[in-house]
Amino acid sequence: MIPRGFCGLTSMRRLHGFRAHMDGDWCSLDELGPLSQLKLLKVIQLESVSSASFAAKARLGEKIHLIDLFLHCTSKLGDYWFGKEYEGISQAEQQRIEEVFDELCPPPSVENLHIEGYFGRQLPSWMMSTLTVPLHNLKTLYFSDLACCTQLPNGLCQLPYLHLLQVCNAPCIRRVESGFLQAAATPFPRLKNLSLIGLVEWEEWEWEDQVEVMPHLDELFLCNCRRRRVPLGLASNARALKKLIIQDIQHLCYLENFPLIVDLTLLGSRLGEDHQFPKSAEAYHHRLPKVECAGECPCAQYVGP
């Protein structure tokens, strides 16, 4: 723990592992308020914050020099991924953490944002629409262990400089709706790297082929979900896509119409009997000089994006 009086270090630029502790004489989020020079901030154990009023005292939105922001809760998923029973989270807990994160709104200067262990049903309001909070400088965005989140926010596609988006372990997301891609004239205009990992119930992705998005997407990583095929819109619009990694997708039936891919990796995925590759397999393999594994590879382990 950190004793009170920490707020006197007003020249601090980088602060890792600040615990949001709420008991006794140890300092909490209110001690972050005066630290206006911070460029990097990592706050952990946010699940212990009892109300949004305490989160507001951190005054994150006033830290105009902040570039790197890490907001972490202790994961509620626990041993879920090891086959053990997943214990639910009450609606009251979900609402509380949603209100807490709504008050942890970052300043427009933030370029790199990590949110881990969040257990609200929807992501913070300042992410649902960039009209609420302009995150126009955001370049990289990581989500991890979203225990209860049911949808990805529509506001992300409006971010003009976002080039990396990773969502890891979100078992309650079952579909990615059309709003994720249609809330901007050119959705995800500079996105280069997209990783969707551990969306174990994800089956649907609404993306029609006439919707032009992600014109600069270079690398796509799909891991551990129920997708049977990649969306038609991806094949017809992601014209810059060169690297495709597919891991632990057991019901994949279609993998076609990606003429520019030069790097294909299939790990732990069982292609169905009716799986389809491009019409000219010979030409296809000629364009894919680095194929690590084709078809079933049950012994493959998770290697990360």
Primary descriptors:
two-stranded parallel ribbon, 305 residues
> So what's the overall shape?
globular
Radius of gyration: 21 Å
- Strand fraction equals 15-25%
Number of helices: 6
Q: Could you describe the largest sheet, including whether it forms a barrel?
A: 11 strands, parallel
Question: What's the N-to-C terminus distance?
Answer: 34 Å
Report the mean per-residue pLDDT as an integer. Answer: 80
Q: What is the succession of H and E elements?
A: EEHEHEHEEEHEEEHEEHE
- Strand arrangement, major sheet: 1-2-3-4-5-6-8-10-11-12-13
Question: What is the number of E strands?
Answer: 13
Which percent bin holds the helix content? 10-25%
Question: What structural category arises from helix and sheet content?
Answer: alpha/beta
Low-confidence stretches: 81-85, 276-305
Written account of the structure:
The chain has 6 helices and 13 strands. Helix 6 links the parallel strand 12 and strand 13. The protein has 305 residues and is an alpha/beta fold. It is globular and about 60 Å long. Helix content is 12%, strand content 19%. The strands form 2 sheets. The protein has an 11-stranded parallel beta sheet with strand order 1-2-3-4-5-6-8-10-11-12-13, with no helix packed on it. The relative contact order is 0.08.
Secondary-structure topology with pairs:
Elements: E1 14-19, E2 40-44, H1 52-56, E3 68-72, H2 91-102, E4 112-116, H3 125-128, E5 140-144, E6 164-168, E7 175-176, H4 179-182, E8 193-197, E9 204-205, E10 219-223, H5 232-237, E11 243-247, E12 263-267, H6 281-286, E13 290-291
Parallel strand pairs: 1-2, 2-3, 3-4, 4-5, 5-6, 6-8, 7-9, 8-10, 10-11, 11-12, 12-13
